[in-house]
Amino acid sequence: MAYLQSVNLGTVRPAVSDLGFSAIDRRPAGRPVMVRAPGQRGVGGSGLVGDEIGDLRHHGGDDAAVYAYAREDLDWWQDRLGVELASGVFGDNLTTVGVDVTGARTGELWRVGDDALLQVTSPRIPCRTFAAWMEQRGWIKTFTERGHPGAYLRVVEPGWISAGDPITVEWRPDHEVTIGLIFRALTTEDELLPRLLEAEELPRTIRDGVERRLAARTRARS
Question: Whole-prediction pTM value?
Answer without folding.
Answer: 0.94
